[in-house]
Design brief:
By secondary structure, this protein is mainly α. It contains 14 helices and no strands. Helix 3 packs across helix 4 and helix 3 runs antiparallel to helix 10.
């Protein structure tokens, strides 16, 4: 009872943060112009971005397969990925996509520690590639930041990521926590598979480039051309900030970050907000097929009991 009550309080706190952030963003941008810009994107550009998102999920499923010692088909993992994306998009703040993925994978794997460890590393390798892209492009993008203090955001985020990785993997501070300690058995096994880790990182680069492509395509649909080098720095910052669980699916926080960062190169708040919302809507639409996968997997489970 207390747990359910705490979850309700957390949900409404996140809702308050998203609402406040959106209020601040819309107070600086004309809502009518935002709607007009969103309408101008066009069906071709929008559905191209949706296909890029789904493609990123498919490639991510192959990475996840590499990280699992048991044999799962890419098809099954892709269906679980899409189901997780659907619940994460349509029930934000209530149930996370990774929690759904863990539930469905564990029904087959029957070992929750392995399931959670594989999902953690799937996310981790994705973040490794994101950080490498961001920090590699940062020195070449300094001219866009000028004297803004935001020029230190990417180096700070990268340093925090390296510090966290050393603490978790090097010093193994996670062993002090019950449940997490079992992860290290999986990590020790994965550490011996250098080829698998290299493949996972390389695949993660492809996933990130597909995600960058979503923003490029949507911006093109608006008639805007944002330097790709700049996106290599801006998007890792945006993704990192919106990953912090203080809002509903990053809503409001993501838009505010887009407005601040793109404002450094003179992009109007209306354009930045529209681009962020269009990205959100494309991910939202791209997760809809997850509902079909959910019904198909549920039907199969009912029929086979597996």
């Amino acid at each position: 009872m207390a747990l359910a009550s705490n979850k309700t309080v957390v949900f409404f706190l996140k809702l308050a943060v998203s609402s406040l952030a959106l209020y601040v963003v819309f107070s600086k941008a004309d809502e009518g112009q935002i709607l007009s810009i969103l309408k101008s994107i066009g069906v071709f550009y929008f559905f191209s971005s949706v296909l890029l998102y789904i493609s990123a999920q498919l490639v991510s499923s192959y990475r996840w397969k590499l990280l699992l010692p048991e044999k799962f088909t890419v098809r099954r993992l892709f269906s679980i990925y899409m189901i997780g994306a659907f619940f994460g998009s349509f029930m934000p703040g209530i149930i996370g996509g990774d929690a759904v993925r863990a539930y469905y994978l564990n029904k087959k794997a029957k070992k929750m520690s392995l399931t959670l460890a594989s999902i953690f590393m799937d996310r981790y390798f994705g973040y490794v590639s994101l950080m490498l892209i961001g920090i590699s492009a940062a020195p070449f993008a300094l001219r866009y930041f000028g004297d803004s203090p935001y020029r230190w955001l990417m180096p700070f985020i990268f340093a925090a990521f390296i510090t966290g990785s050393i603490l978790f993997f090097g010093l193994q501070i996670g062993k002090k926590f019950r449940g997490v300690s079992e992860f290290y058995e999986y990590f020790i096994m994965l550490k011996t598979q250098k080829g698998t880790m290299i493949k996972a990182v390389l695949i993660s680069f492809l996933v990130q480039f597909l995600n960058f492509g979503i923003v490029v395509v949507l911006a093109a649909g608006m008639g805007e051309k944002i330097p790709l080098l700049l996106l290599f720095v801006f998007l890792p910052i945006v993704i990192t900030i919106t990953t912090i669980p203080v809002s509903i699916s990053g809503l409001g926080v993501r838009e505010g970050t887009f407005v601040i960062l793109l404002g450094l190169i003179g992009v109007r708040p209306e354009i930045a907000t529209s681009l962020s919302l269009a990205y959100f809507f494309s991910v939202f639409a791209g997760s809809v097929p997850g509902l079909a996968f959910y019904f198909a997997l549920t039907k199969k489970t009912d029929r086979t009991g597996a």
